[in-house]
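Our consortium's second objective concerns turning raw sequence data into structural hypotheses that experimental partners can test. To show how far this objective has progressed, the report includes one record in full. It was chosen at random from the queue rather than selected for favorable results. The single chain below, 165 residues long, was entered without modification.
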Amino acid sequence: MNIEPFVICSADQKPPKMRPVNTPGGLADRMRTAAFAEKQAIFAFNWACGKFSDAPKKLLEDWALQIPEEIKHYNLIANRMNDLGFRMNERPVSLRLWESLKVCETAKEFCIRIAGAEERGRQAGLLLAEYLSDSDPETSAVFFEIVEDEIAHVKLAETYYGWTP
């Protein structure tokens, strides 16, 4: 997985605690974490499309269709961070998402696990978008757009395996 421009925590290290959201550093921390989650999702969906022979053909097609959306999400966040003068490599991030996905042994396990991650990200994005709606409408709009797309991503686990958050 190409992790550039991010700095990754060592395996025995946790990422630094996020700074308060009402500070530029705190906003940067949340945006960086979200951007890295999108980058891991891009890699994970590409990987899953070639890994899980037990997946229904239509699910593999649906996962492949998610990749351009995950790329779009990453670019939306990265571009907004650039506009704000925030750097992706300022603080380390964690590979926990990818580490949790690469051990999946079945399409069902992967689908449910990534849907759970997408739902957690959707909830966090919604809170951030709402928090920023008055003070930073441009960043808020980025996260509201991502939140809307994630609804369909999470729904795949329900469609194929009956899982709901």
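The partners drew two points from this record. Residues 24-51 form the longest helix (28 residues). The CA atoms of residues 93 and 130 lie 24 Å apart. Both points have been shared with the crystallography group to help prioritize constructs.
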